């Protein structure tokens, strides 16, 4: 299953995407605003894909997906849904390498994921969590129609994150 927009293809992550995931998960902005996933080798990146997004898709029908340039296939980031134990609703997640940030790709991909959540998945609400220092991501969530609901910790010893929610309207 792949989603396409004018400029993007959003498709399931596969173990062959390991080199890109290794680069993304170790990008300084990912480490600062999302956190250290402890992925340092290509084998660990492949395991991360298999045990995270691939398992989620099999179990729930959704996951974080690879976002690539539609015409060239060049990977630029990830976008999709995650079900976190600490949250009631599936959570919109996204991350992009710096060359692809600030060019509207994150919004374009997020809108396609939200449309898929509304149509194929029939979801009524989405959540999102974000580091309060990450103003570009907060701005994107606001432009997408998410509203701040307070703060949350995803783990007892985890950082305090901003919690956003979005009510999906069916056409």
- If classified by CATH, what would the architecture be? 3-Layer(aba) Sandwich
Q: What share of residues are in beta strands?
A: 25-35%
| CATH level 1 class label | Alpha Beta
- What is the rounded Rg? 15 Å
Read across the widest sheet, the strand sequence of neighbours is 1-2-3-4-5
Number of helices: 5
Count up the domains.
1
Low-confidence stretches: none
Determine the CATH topology. Aminopeptidase
Quick take:
The chain is an alpha+beta fold.
Throw out a few tags for this protein.
171 residues; alpha+beta; Aminopeptidase; five-stranded antiparallel beta sheet; three-stranded antiparallel beta sheet; 5 helices
Structure write-up:
It is a single chain. Helix 1 (18-25) crosses helix 3 (42-60). The strands form 2 sheets. Strands 1-2-3-4-5 form a 5-stranded antiparallel β-sheet. The chain is globular and about 35 Å long. It has 5 helices and 8 strands; from the N terminus they run ββαααβββαβαββ. 34% of the residues lie in helices and 27% in strands. It has a single domain, classed as Aminopeptidase (3-Layer(aba) Sandwich). The protein has 171 residues and is an alpha+beta fold.
